[in-house]
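Entry:
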Amino acid sequence: ARAVEAVFDAAGWGITDPLTSQSTYATLRAIVENQGYRAAPMSTLLLDGRPPAYTYAKTLNTFFQRHHLRVFGSLGEHEGAAVWTASSTHDSGIGFATRARTFIHVIDQNIDVERDKVVFDLVLTGCVDGVSYVDRPWVPRDASNATGDALITDGRAAVLRLNDCAAPRRADAVVESAPIVRPTPSAATRMARDITLWFRNDLLR
């Protein structure tokens, strides 16, 4: 669990607020005022009857678009390591669900793009020792979610093996650029340049 928390924190993913009346009001205010709400809550989705252990998001300066994912607790072990499951989507806009009578996010239908973004984000932290893609032939290639959004996918699941993530590279770390070192021109080059400037500025004038 500690490595899971560390890798997402280092990659710049923030934990979202729980779904309460206060966070719901903050969400509506963000929608009306077109403001960002980095920790906006998510609807509760279950995996095998269990809610997610963590909910993470990445947002820009608007609530209408965000990256978000749910991480579900370990269901067992593989080669001595706990196996966690995550599901992610990219919210691309806001819609209104007439049946539920509430605002909902509209997602990018190419969900594999979001899968790969999460993989790249985590790999860049240095906390990932291996990445593989597992085919799932039973997954429909043209499914849709509960709100009617089309889901286009190759059906593969990304499998990442984390290390202990003791010293991750942080996405928010300030990277200092190296100073630009220009080579010192030779004496002959400097003399030729001075003669050219003299000829142009004095003789021709």
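The longest helix spans residues 187-203.
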